[in-house]
Amino acid sequence: MLVLGIESSCDETAAAIVEDGRRVVAEEVASQIAIHAGFGGVVPEIAARAHVVHVLPVIDAVLKRAAIGLSQVDAIAVTCGPGLIGALLVGVQTAKAIAFGCGLPLIGVNHLEGHLCAVFLDVEKVPSFPHLALLVSGGHSEIVVAHDFGKYELLGATRDDAAGEAFDKVGKLLGLGYPAGPLVDKLARTGDRAAVKLPQAMRGRGLDFSFSGIKTAVATHVQKHGVPTEQALSDLCASFQAQVVAQLVSKTMLALDEKKFGGLVVSGGVACNRGLRQALQTETERRGVDLFIPSPERCTDNAAMIACAGYYRLRRGERAPVDLKAAPGLSLTS
Ligand code: KG4
Ligand code: ZN
Q1: pLDDT at position 200, please?
Q2: Cα–Cα distance, 303 to 309 (Å, whole number)
Q3: Ligand 1 in contact with 272 (CB < 6 A)?
Q4: Could you read off the pLDDT of 294-329 as tens digits, one per residue?
Q5: Ligand nearest to the CA of 166
Q6: What is the pLDDT of residue 203?
């Protein structure tokens, strides 16, 4: 079964063809990073307009790359939330029009479920259910139990900023451009994580996160000492990243130690972070738990993960109504 996935929830217009929910036949992404970089963050109205420009060319390109026509597609899966309303609407309306015009089944996919499904693409070994998942992106930081496809239980979430948002805001403060997560990560590699003392937030047994205190501590440091350069900049990035990673890892391990899971899945843009990947590798090896992290391109927003999640919804007999709505505030458990 070939599913055409369409993703437009934030700043990537993406389309993919995925076979049987597992094999990526073709994918295309039109990134808007260059457009938003000058503003230091995603501008919702500009994002929506750019999706309008890119969505049909991206779908055409992915069909061409897969060497198929729409008549060979079995279903369409589209991100219907959460995300930016204008951005979501472009993908949803496009998917509805194609599905209606071609008489194809349509599935509305939760973007967060898409991130959790990215580990099932193009791999032999997959996690079994129930497994634990750490979802860390620009908009979300959540610890979730995946009981099955489409059945999720929320164990913990951020009380303020998402982890990726904290990386981006701290990066902006340090004049690093947007998105700053990858740049902070790169600088942190040559920095001394013990150089700057930052607060250890949200210690204790609860599974919620908080990153705004660490972010404010970086802001206070910059106010006192100015924006650092060279080695001092790397040191500050390493110190900040170490605190974020320590919190993500310690909370995830608390949940992991609670009961037996069929592995730990980590996904979302922040799952590209080298410090986080290394720390999770060490901790899961110590516990004899299998760790599943998608490749960096599949951790960030893509349409293959949407097609994958859509495939499993389709198999459960789900179909979106013809008036499928974009739902900017959709949660994983709603
Ligand atoms: O999953 P994603 O592509 O979009 C959302 O659904 O939000 O995540 C984007 C976020 C951005 O905040 C970006 O700075 C962060 O992921 N990110 C990273 C790294 N790569 C991307 N954060 C830390 N280290 C990285 N290497
Ligand atoms: Zn995302």
Answers
A1: 86
A2: 10
A3: yes
A4: 999 999 999 999 999 999 999 999 999 989 999 999
A5: 1
A6: 81
Query: Is-contact 113 309, C-beta < 8 A?
Result: yes
Q: Which of 300, 301, 330, 332 to mutate to test the pocket of ligand 1 (most atoms within 8 A of CB)?
A: 300
Q: Is the CB of 10 under 6 A from ligand 1?
A: yes
- pLDDT for 205 equals 78
Say if ligand 1 is within 6 A of residue 181 CB: yes
Q: Does the CB atom of residue 137 touch ligand 1 within 6 A?
A: yes
Band of pLDDT at residue 334, cut at 50, 70 and 90: confident
CA of 125 to the centre of ligand 2 (A): 23
- Res 202 pLDDT > 90: no
User: Does the C-beta of 179 come closer than 6 Å to ligand 1?
Assistant: yes
Whether the model pTM is above 0.90: yes
User: Which domains does the chain possess?
Assistant: 2-118+298-315 (3.30.420.40), 126-293 (3.30.420.40)
Q: How far is the CA of 297 from the centre of ligand 2 (A)?
A: 11
Render pLDDT for 150-171 as a digit per residue (tens, 0 to 9). 999 999 999 999 999 999 999 9
Ligand nearest to the CA of 136: 1
What pLDDT was estimated at residue 322?
A: 87
Is pLDDT above 90 for 142? yes
Neighbours of 244 (CB within 10 A): 27
Phi-psi group of 119: left, alpha or beta (phi > 0 → left; psi -120 to 50 → alpha; rest → beta) = alpha
Q: Which atom of ligand 1 is closest in space to residue 171's alpha carbon?
A: 14
